[in-house]
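To close the chapter, one final illustration. This time we ask the reader to focus less on the individual chains and more on the assembly as a whole: which components sit near each other, and how the overall shape emerges from the parts.
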Amino acid sequence: MGFISRGFRGRPRDEGVKLPPGQYLVHDFPVLSAGPTPRVPLDRWEFAIDTEDGKTHRWSWQELMALPSETPTVDLHCVTKWSKLGTAWKGVSLDTLFADVESSAEYALVYSYGGYTTNLPVEDLLDGKAWITYEFDGEELAPAHGGPARLLVPHLYLWKSAKWVQGIRLLNEDWPGFWETAGYHNYGDPWREQRYQGD
Amino acid sequence: MRRLAWHVAKLAEIRDETPTARTLVLDIPGWPGHLAGQHVDVRLTAEDGYSTQRSYSIASAADGERVDLTVQRVADGEVSPYLTEELRPGDELEIRGPVGGWFVWRPDGTRPVLLVGGGSGIVPLMAMIRAREQAGSRTPFRLLYSLREPGERYYAEELRKPISGLDVTYLYTRVVPDGWARPAGRVTVADVNTGGWPAEFRPECFVCGPTGFVETVSDILLAMGHDATAIKTERFGPTGG
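The assembled structure is written out below.
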């Protein structure tokens, strides 16, 4: 018999909903970020993919808008324990952005306006698993939630879905990002509860 | 890499801060210590095996195996009503931490410090004030504490006593005490200008509270010329239960 919290019953369980271990359901959209919200004017906004050979592919806001978009509906899992199900986004698949990128790098370091970084394997960005999003719930993405554009990688904890995304650097070696160097897990799979280093 | 272990903490004492918030004084055998500003994960498990977790900021400076958490009861919450109403001294809790290496103040810091707290956002800031006291640090601190009314103050007695090198300013948003010069209202540029530090002093700024509050204060600090990298934020959503 494991640990029991005396007198704790918890909320009535919704048997239809399966959440990753340790998570609870929310219906609003909490905001978490480590510093001030950067404001990026669209006429100066740019997204880049930098390859391991020093080549850079760039997109202006207009160029991003001209690309075919997708409307993924996904579940979000934040390492601070909340999960939000069935969120509706609009954005461009990373498969589309990577179509003309020649690279054999295995690692990606995502960087943001404001200086935030996060790392993940390149394969987690491809095959329909990640998007550069600019609309949430039919509205343009609010700055507090990462607007004008944020990375969306919903199969990993939400800190990997970098807000205010500015670019992706492709690397031959793994380069831990902001939270990854501050004690959080390097990969961050919510279903394996990879919250902190060593989990 | 060593995994952050779950510890079984025992509730030693309860201190009521307000009618809806209480400090849980915990003894945690094997606690590795913490930095001011860090938080812990609390795990509750029901008899049928159902388990859920929440994060809470640590209110105390490192003190052996003793750790204070201050928990605000959220009306329709799942965990905070249990922690603030059901839990009794002698009860046990599962705790993991400390967590978070960014929103922290270290006692060897020499830059002036500005703490801006909204509501229960005071908790990790209080840990910084206590860590400063404990270390005998003379780093100048200024605290701006925004809250609805005087009755919602946490740590009221402790902050009432003068602490050398710490200036405390209360910003009431709804109800002010009799004869209070500042009318009730949300934090403004004038408040941060008067109660904070000039940007030239290059203070470390810690801002903690609800999202709207943190957004407002960090925008004000940026407009005053503070460096974005010197502004560390921690946000409490309306949820968290």
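The radius of gyration of chain B is 18 Å. Chain B is about 20% helix and 35% strand. With these observations in hand, you are ready for the problems at the end of the chapter.
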